[in-house]
Amino acid sequence: MGIQDWSERIVVVDLSDDPQFTDDLNALIDLVEKRNGSDVLLNFTAINFLNSSNIAKLLKLRKLLHSNAPGKLRLCGINNSVWGVFLVTGLDKIFEFSDDVPSGLATLQMQR
Fold it and tell me: What is the spatial distance between Cα 1 and Cα 91, in angstroms, rounded to a whole number?
């Protein structure tokens, strides 16, 4: 599983293409609910495509982190083909992005 506790408050998830993507996000959603919130950094470096189910899971996680279990969500390491999906769907306007894991972690730490 690609879910790692980076600190007491921050969880880093190294995502892979489906079916692992769905499994990791389901496990992450459960973890965030149990903790009653966390900051989450999703690393998309190994992701080559997104489908509608993946997008629905991302939106569910975002909603959870913005309501019931407060926390920040950042996405990083997004390649051009996946970035195109974010642009076409308008999701580039609702998610926050970083270039890579170190810059994403730095941003999450500064926001606290």
Answer: 26
